[in-house]
Amino acid sequence: MPPIPDSASRHDAPALLIIDLQQGMREPQLGPRNNPEAETRVAALLSHWRAHGWPVVHIRHISRSPTSVFAPGQAGVLFQPAFEPQANEQVFEKNVPDAFTHSSLERWLRVRGIEHLVIVGVSSENSVESTARSAGNLGFHTVVLNDACFTFAKSDFDGRPRSAEEVHAMAMANLQGEYATVLNCTELLTSLFAEPS
């Protein structure tokens, strides 16, 4: 991502895509997770984007399964209070992991001339990875923030238990250099406000 000075116009700035930070992600049944400070970092980034008038996109998952915590009518589908969209921020709903599938997200970005995306949220190997893969394949300059995403422990294909840290690390490895640039929040903010050489 090329450096964008603090005085960057809204048109030049990257869009912040906040994926699935809904109340259902707090359910204990989802199991152990990593990056316990991820929401705090996302909230700080959101505040930063809002202060600069940069584009913010909120992604919300609506499950097709009636037993899901993300089924329509469940409290789990609601945004967490810290990430409640403002009137001037865009919201897209999805029924599959990839936020670009069956939505007008790509068109919304293209119409506004947005070429750079910063992706944060949950889950690292699911909606974050899927959306970042599509973003990269569609030609967007995509950054995924390692410390502003999280996931949960799960078993691998062979049935071996994997910690949330392991699942997250593999998701970031899958994306790095192939579909996106993986940074931490400090690296991103330094990059955005670096003086051109």
UniProtKB/TrEMBL annotation:
Keyword Hydrolase on this protein?
yes
Kindly give the InterPro entries that the UniProt entry links to this protein: Isochorismatase-like_dom (IPR000868), Isochorismatase-like_hydrls (IPR050272), Isochorismatase-like_sf (IPR036380)
- Alphabetized GO MF terms: hydrolase activity
The UniProt record lists the Isochorismatase-like domain at 15-183
What's in the keyword line of the UniProt record?
Answer: Hydrolase
Pfam families listed in its UniProt record? Isochorismatase (PF00857)
Domain of life the protein comes from:
Bacteria
PANTHER family to which the protein is assigned, alphabetical: ISOCHORISMATASE HYDROLASE, PEROXYUREIDOACRYLATE/UREIDOACRYLATE AMIDOHYDROLASE-RELATED
Q: What is this protein called?
A: Cysteine hydrolase
